[in-house]
Amino acid sequence: MSGTWIEVDLDAIVNNYQEIIKHLHPKARCMAVVKADAYGLGAVQVALALEQVGCEAFAVTKVEEGIILRKSGIKGLILVLGPTTQEEWPEAIKSQLQLTITELSLIAKLNEVCLSLYQAAHVQLKLETGMGRTGFRLEELSELSKLLGSADCLKVRGVYTHFARAAQRDKRYTLEQYATFKALVARLEELGINPEWKHVCNSAAYLDYPEWHLDFVRIGTLLIGHYPGPGYSGKLSLKDPWIAKSRIVHLRKVPKGTYVGYQSIYRTKSTTQLAVIPVGYADGLGIAPHFVPQGWVDFIKIVIKNFAALIGIFLGQERVELGGRTVRVAGKIGMQLTVLDVGMQACTLGDEVRIPLRRTLANPRIHRKYKQGGRILSERTIEEGLSTTNTEYSL
Questions:
Q1: Are 347 and 317 members of one domain?
Q2: Which domain range does residue 34 map to?
Q3: 8 vs 161, 326, 367, 377, 384, CA distance in Å?
Q4: 205 and 350 inside one domain
Q5: What is the mean pLDDT of residues 3-28?
Q6: With the C-alpha atoms ordered 70, 72, 76, 78, is the resulting torsion angle positive or negative?
Q7: pLDDT value at position 234?
Q8: Measured in whole angstroms, how far is the alpha carbon of residue 170 from the centre of its chain?
Q9: In the annotation, is 262 catalytic?
Q10: Is 227 one of the annotated active-site residues of the chain?
Q11: pLDDT of residue 1
Q12: pLDDT of residue 379
């Protein structure tokens, strides 16, 4: 895929982190959420850049993500947010990852694994307050206390929850979730469980509720230069670290009336140039997540956007740019090749085209070029190995 690549500006990531910590409560710290390969930017490179400027904590969803960070030299706290399996525990414990506990039946088994390794595990408790996914409910806390009291190798460091609707205009549900969290924590304390860290804020709650910053805020969306919703735009001076590009690999002039692509749904309206770029659905071009409309206005926007895409017009962020000008996709996007109608604009083979690839949907095999201080630091593909370093971990 040498004709297609992604440029990741690490200076932009650092800028966003520094903007975030400017507005933190004095006692709080930022836990950088680098799950899903840092939303496609590259978890290792992003975490290393953030650790260099003082970030002390990172969050991932899976054990394997945390182990990759450790083997790449990350020294700070690494919290695994998602459920884990017994097969993953030995390596996770050896790597000093902090595991999230959400199920009563696993506590004794995790403790047994720690005993077999002669090593304690630092864990955090997830509380269910309304997300409906994982976490302990009020009726489970008494049993949780008993089980933890018998698990001498488990050191409870933190307790947290996750908000379901923090970015929505109606804040009532989020307020209810926070009230539930406080009640559950109070009950834990009554039972003798007193974790030193508490955290609830995602990117939206961080912006809306500075009084809830507590010990950590878990930030992902803002770090990658996005706001959690339109109503938050401009609250921080964020920079977008992501640019996806491809090159023209075939170019020819065609007459008016030329059919292009599968099903011949596109026909040129005048003499023009057709440019082929080596990128398509297999790379994430034209693929978008399914969003449930939040009301009729949202529904109409989605319908209009999809209809425009059908005829090769990309609205919003879905723009293909050549020489600073938006150009049209001619017909259907192919699996690995896409045709552009570039008009009679001056261009040639090898010219760069800026393409709309969503971070989490872009093929991980596409080259990432990391920029910092005005220069390219490295290129990475998924096949590249990761160096192993011996480190002592903090927190």
A1: yes
A2: 9-228
A3: 31, 22, 10, 10, 17
A4: no
A5: 96
A6: negative
A7: 92
A8: 24
A9: yes
A10: no
A11: 46
A12: 61
